[in-house]
C-alpha cells in the first residue's frame, strides 16, 4: 500500500516526521487533501491546522498548528517549512488564550491610534493564537 511521508520543519528543527495515508492543509488558494501519488507541487500555506491521518491505524490522526509557510509535495514526500509549528499535544492552551487576549487589546489600541502596521501585526498574532487554541482543543 502506498503512503506519504510527512515532515514539518521550522527554524528550530524537525517538528514532525511520520507516514500518512492522507493529509489535509489549507493553502492561500483553499483547502487541499493529499493522497499518495498526488501530483508534485509547491504551495503557500495559510495559518491553519494540518491534519495527518497516520498509516498505523485508521483512527490515528495528528493535528499540527502551522503558522504559514510552504508545502512541497514530491514523489509522496510532503515537506512543510514553516516559521513555527506545534503538535496539538504540545500546545499550552492557557498561554495561547493569553496571547489571544493580548492581540485583541493590541488591535483595539492600534485602531484607536490609527497605527495600521501595528494593527496588521496584531491581527496576525490573533490568527496564530486562535489557530493554536483550535488545534490544542482537538485532543
Automatic annotation (TrEMBL):
Tell me where in this chain the ATP synthase epsilon subunit C-terminal domain is found.
90-135
Q: Which UniProt keywords apply?
A: ATP synthesis, Cell membrane, CF(1), Coiled coil, Hydrogen ion transport, Hydrolase, Ion transport, Membrane, Transport
CDD domains the record matches: F1-ATPase_delta
Q: Please classify the protein's predominant subcellular localization into one broad category.
A: membrane
Q: Name one Pfam family in it.
A: ATP-synt_DE_N
Q: Does the keyword Coiled coil apply?
A: yes
- Which InterPro entries does the record cross-reference, listed alphabetically? ATP_synth_F1_dsu/esu, ATP_synth_F1_dsu/esu_N, ATP_synth_F1_esu_C, ATPsynth_dsu/esu_N
Q: Where is the ATP synthase F1 complex delta/epsilon subunit N-terminal domain?
A: 4-85
Segments forming a coiled coil: 91-120
Q: What does this protein do?
A: Produces ATP from ADP in the presence of a proton gradient across the membrane.
HAMAP family assigned: ATP_synth_epsil_bac
Q: What is this protein called?
A: ATP synthase epsilon chain
Look up and give the organism this protein is from. Answer: Streptococcus halitosis
Taxonomic placement: Bacteria, Bacillati, Bacillota, Bacilli, Lactobacillales
